[in-house]
């Protein structure tokens, strides 16, 4: 971090805070996230209804997924194999751990294999339910609902690179809405 930047500086390459005013803004953010070519895991946090699944759906579509995106609330994990423009297949796993009773359940379904797969992206909603089990993510995304002065519901999104994400050289300062 540069000496003239603080953690709260929204231009920081490691922390970015954005306000989403519409579904189009959510889609725009998803396209930008897709362009980062992230690997490893991304932890999506936020209350029920904060927009985590909507962001993930747009993100998968921006990566090139065609077709429906099912919520993994009951299955825990939905796997995707997305063909990129260069012909390479990108493995993406969308996990929702809201209904997870015990983090040990993840070992029974082979969750470690998703995390160990080279070039895989594992997007995890409610990762806090298994934070003792999971390795640190590449990126944290925290979504909060808020009302603007006109009573419309906005989404405040804080994106934070972990040390692993910083080490991979990712830069969040280009993300804008």
How do the helices and strands line up, and which of them pair or pack?
Layout lengths: L14 E6 L2 H13 L4 E6 L6 H12 L13 E7 L5 E8 L8 H4 L2 H6 L4 E5 L13 E9 L5 E9 L1 H5 L10
Parallel strand pairs: 2-5, 2-6, 4-5
Antiparallel strand pairs: 1-7, 3-4, 6-7
Helix pairs in contact: 1-2
How would you describe the overall organization of this protein?
- The longest helix is centred in the first third of the chain and has 13 residues, at 23-35.
- The chain is α/β, with parallel strands linked by helices and 177 residues long.
- It has a seven-stranded mixed sheet with strand order 1-7-6-2-5-4-3.
- The chain contains five helices and seven strands; from the N terminus they run βαβαββααβββα.
- It has helices at residues 23-35, 52-63, 105-108, 111-116, 163-167, and strands at residues 15-20, 40-45, 77-83, 89-96, 121-125, 139-147, 153-161.
- It is 23% helix and 28% strand.
Share of residues in strands: 25-35%
Oligomer: single chain
- Overall mean pLDDT stands at 88
Radius of gyration over alpha carbons?
16 Å
The dominant shape is globular
Order of H and E elements: EHEHEEHHEEEH
Spatial gap, N to C terminus = 23 Å
Number of strands: 7
As laid out across the biggest beta sheet, the strand order is: 1-7-6-2-5-4-3
Number of alpha- plus pi-helical segments: 5
Structural class: alpha/beta
Largest sheet: 7 strands, mixed
Helix content: 10-25%
Low-confidence stretches: 1-11
């Amino acid at each position: 971090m540069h000496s003239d930047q603080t953690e709260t500086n929204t231009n920081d390459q490691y922390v970015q805070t954005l306000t989403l005013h519409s579904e189009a803004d959510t889609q725009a953010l998803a396209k930008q996230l897709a362009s980062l070519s992230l690997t490893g895991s991304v932890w999506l946090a936020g209350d029920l209804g904060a927009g985590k699944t909507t962001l993930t759906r747009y993100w998968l579509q921006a990566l090139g997924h065609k077709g429906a995106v099912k919520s993994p609330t009951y299955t825990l994990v939905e796997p995707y194999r997305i063909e990129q423009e260069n012909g390479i297949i990108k493995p993406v796993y969308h996990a929702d751990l809201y209904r997870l009773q015990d983090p040990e359940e993840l070992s029974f379904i082979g969750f470690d294999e998703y995390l160990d797969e080279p070039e895989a992206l594992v997007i995890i909603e409610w990762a806090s339910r298994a934070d003792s089990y999971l390795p640190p993510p590449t990126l944290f995304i925290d979504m909060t609902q808020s009302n603007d002065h006109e009573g419309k519901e906005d989404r405040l999104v804080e994106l934070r690179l972990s040390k692993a994400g910083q080490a991979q050289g990712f830069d969040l300062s280009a993300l804008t809405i």
